[in-house]
Amino acid sequence: MPNSQLAFTVRKSRADGATDDGHAMKQHGKQHAVAPPPISEATIHPRRYFDASPTFQHWNKVTCADVHALRSESGFQGQGIYFHLNHPIQFIRVVGLLVEIQTVAGGKYTLLTLDDSSGECLVLKIKSRDLRQSNEEYPSNTEIDNVDVHVSLGHTTVLLNSAPLQIGHVVKAKGTVDFFRNKRQLDLKRLFLVPSTNAEAQAWSETAKWKRDVLSKPWRLTQDARDKVDKDILRQTQKERDHARRKQDWSRKVEERRRRHDEKAEVKRKKLDTIYNAGALKGSHIISAPWD
């Protein structure tokens, strides 16, 4: 075979190969575009999806040690949002034995220390209301309606549903995570007395079930669930826009009615002025000063 013909054959073969490779690369690229890599089960989902989680809007039944083990994640500091695996958590429920009661900051806060035998204790913080600067009536002198705190001669008495709370009582507490001197505590929102050992066993059973059924595995958010949340957000956004537009239209109509009313009133005033001034003497509208 002549060299020129051989060279042509080689070039054609390479060109055909390049065409096939290019086609294969395009097909490979299309496959990647259609099927993105799956999201890790431990992925922290965007904030807009948190309401779809089984933990974010619920009281999470955990132990004191679990509260201290919650993680902070970048982008969520200062928002009261913490994480167990990839579960977003803001509301906590704990059950335990009351081992200490103290008042600090001149009576502004009352601290209850809870021990649930998990290896960690947890402080429950109660905020007192400043009733001296308010004329309103409240059911209690704290921010928890069924909890009152009285301090006399350095002794603190905590009343739960009007009954004194004692060291050794078992209580059920609900609140949000707070910090004091880099130590986690619970900003108390609700407090209940656990009346019996059966009730305590039931509470611990609820905690075990919640940890087993919910917290033991990562939160998996399906694409259908994502799409539903996104549609709900778009629907709510459109609803808010429509409301804002209707409010603007209403304000514009009110302003237009006010303007027309003022114009009619001005026309009426001018007509009355003309009628009243029709028979007046020339220059009678001028009032001379006494010294003129």
Helicity, as a percent range:
25-40%
Radius of gyration: 37 Å
> Helical region count?
4
β content, as a range?
15-25%
**Could you please say which CATH topology of the largest domain applies here?**
OB fold (Dihydrolipoamide Acetyltransferase, E2P)
How many strands?
11
CATH-level-4 superfamily name of the largest domain = Nucleic acid-binding proteins
CATH class of the largest domain: Mainly Beta
Order of helices and strands: HEHEEEEEEEEEEHH
Distance between the termini: 132 Å
The appropriate CATH architecture of the largest domain is: Beta Barrel
Largest sheet: 5 strands, mixed, barrel
Determine the structural class based on helices, strands and strand pairing.
alpha+beta
What is the general shape?
elongated
- Taking pLDDT < 50 over at least 5 consecutive residues as the criterion, the unreliable ranges are 1-41
Identify the strand order in the major beta sheet.
Answer: 4-5-6-11-10
Number of domains: 2
Q: What's the rounded overall pLDDT mean?
A: 83
